[in-house]
Amino acid sequence: MIEWYTTDTYNINFVLQYTPMSSHHLKGVKKSAITDKIRSAICEYKKENPGVSQKDLQAWVHQKYDLDISQSTISNTLKRASEYLSDERKQSDVKKHKSAKYPELEKVLFEWFLQRQDKVNMSGEIIQEKGKELMKKMYGESNSDFSFSSGWLERFKARYGIKSYRRFGESGSVMMENIENALPGIRSKLDQFQLKDIYNMDETGLFYRLEADHSLATKQLEGRKKDKERITVVVCCNGDGSDKVPLWIIGKHANPRCFKNVNINNLNCVYRFNKKAWMTGLLFQEFVTWFDSKMNGRKIQPCDAGIIRAFKVHYRRRLYSSMLQSLEVNATNPEKVNILNAISFANMAWNIDVKTTTIANCFRHCKIRSEENDEQELGEINEGVEGLNEVISNLRYRNVMDVEHLLNYPNENDAVMESPTDEEIIESIMSTDEGTDPEPDDSNVIPSVSSKEAFQALTTLNNYLLQHEQNIPGVIFALHKVKDEINFGFGGKKKQATIDSYFNKN
Q1: 3-state secondary structure of 250
Q2: First-to-last C-alpha distance (Å) of the chain
Q3: What's this model's pTM, rounded to 2 decimal places?
C-alpha cells in the first residue's frame, strides 16, 4: 500500500494532480458498487498471492479502486472465484469495454486533464469540448463528425480512472499556511513508519553538458545550444538510504545514435523519452505503477526530502572530471558529452557517490517526523562541493561560475514546473524519433566489441591492477568475475573454451 504525503509546495500540487494513482483521496468521493471487473481482479490477486488474508484484500481494493467493501463481500467473491476467473467471463468483460477509436487523442486529452485538473473545476462538458478542440488540432476537419457523446465520456472516464470529487475551499491551489497546518498530521502518520519504509521521489531538470564557465555560457547561448541540452532525472530512495531506486531518465530521443550497439536494459536505469524531455502525467503514472510493483505489497510511505542537491554535486564533479581527463590526453572536443555519457555519470553519482548517511541526514534535516531535531550533520554534501570546486579549479576557466550558481542554474527546472500548451502536449504524446534533431555525427557511437577484444582488454587491466601501489584485492576479484562471465558465456550458457582456442578465433 502506498500513501502519498509531502511537505513541498510544488510536490503537493504534483501529488494532488495525479489522484487516480493515489491511495487516499479527498473526502467526498462518490462511491460505486463493486463491479464484476473488480471481483475478477480480487480473485486474480488472491490467485497470485495465495497467502494474502481477506483483511489484506479489503485494504488492496481500497488502495487500488478507492472502494470500501466488507469482508463478507470478499468472502462471497472468493467463493465464486472459478466463475470470475473463467475465460467466458473475461471475454464478456472485454466486449463490454470498447477500445478507443482515437487512442492517441485520448492520451493527449488525459495529459491535458492531469495538467489542468487542480486549476479548473472540471466537468464532463469541459472534457467533451476540449476533446473536440484537440481533434481539430490533431486531425484537422477530416474527423469532425466524431461524436464526443455522453457514452464516449463515460468510457473515457472509465479507461483513465477519472471520478467525481468535491473541491474544498475557495481555491484549488495549495498555500504555504495550508502546508504548515498539515505538517502535524503528516508527522503523526509518518511516526508510524520506520525510516526504511519512508520514500522520497522527486524529479529535476539537468543541463547534462553545462560547463562552469560564464564566458563559455555566453557563447553557448549564441552558437552552441547543445551545451544546454536538457534531460529530466527522477530520483527515489528511502529514509535510511538503504534502497536507492534505479533512476528514471527522460530524454528527447527514442533511440539516440549513441545507443547504437547498446542493450538499453544494461543501463541500470529506466529510460523514457518525449520531444520535450518532460515528466508527463502518463509517465508519472507509469512510474508509480512500476514503483508499486517493486514494493511487492510492502507498506511504505513516499514523501519529500532534499536529496537532489547531493546528486547534482556528484554528477557535475564526474562530468568535469571526464572533461579534465579528455583535456589531458588532447582529445578533440573534450566538452562533447552524449546522453549515454550522462546516464553513466548519473548512475555513478547516484549509486556510488550519494552516501547512505547523506540520504538519512537529508531526511532527518527536513523534519518529516516528530522525533527529528535541528542538529543534523550535512558534512558529506559539503565534502562533495569541495571536490567539485577542486575539479572546476583544475579546468582553469577564465570566468568560472560560483558553485551555488551552477547547482541552481537559472531555467534548469523551468520546464519541470511550467504547464505545457496543447501543442506541446500533443507533441510529447505523438513524438517519435522521426523529425527530432539528430546528433551531429556518428562519432559518439560505441563500436561493436568482440569477446576476444574484451578478454584482451581485461587481461591488460588485470596486469595494471596487479602492479597498483594500493591494496585493492576486491577490485581485482571483481575483474576476475567479469573475465569468467566472458570466458564461460553470460549465464553459463556456453562451454568454457581453452585460452588457445579463444585467441585462434577469427
Answers
A1: strand
A2: 55
A3: 0.68
